[in-house]
Write a structure and sequence with these properties.
The chain is an alpha+beta fold. A four-stranded antiparallel β-sheet has the order 2-3-1-4. The radius of gyration is 20 Å and the shape is elongated. It comes from Blastococcus deserti. This is Lrp/AsnC family transcriptional regulator.
Length: 159
Amino acid sequence: MPEVDATDARLLLALGEDPRASVMALSQRLGLARNTVQARLARLETNGVLAPLDRRVRPEALGYRLTAYVTVQVVQRSLADVSGALAQIPEVVEVTGLSGVADLLVEVVAKDADDLWRITEHVLAIPGVQRTDTALALRRFVDHRVGPLLERAAGEAHT
């Protein structure tokens, strides 16, 4: 993935403040040519710099009020198969490979405790899963963010 330069960072910050801003509005705000903004946005999208839009939808709005983190220990050489099976469970919102005792960190959402039980049983039934440990998220203190990193990247060019 290519690195974001200071101009890209300024563009992404402006887009974060007003996600529905037109290319023309962004170009005027940033003092860039409309074609430059259009090309940069297209490149950022094509190169995977921008996360999918569904990342902005909160699961709570869909009735999934519980979030849990499940660490999963996997039989060696089954990591790809287990990851693929996890991706088929709609309530699995993210899977991250780890170093250490656990192999995967799986973020899941559930409607209630019974639903969470069902989901964890589904995870345990995946061939290659040896063990799981589930921790219920009680409160989020800092939401997922990259704004401060973008501000730093945008500011470094001005110094």
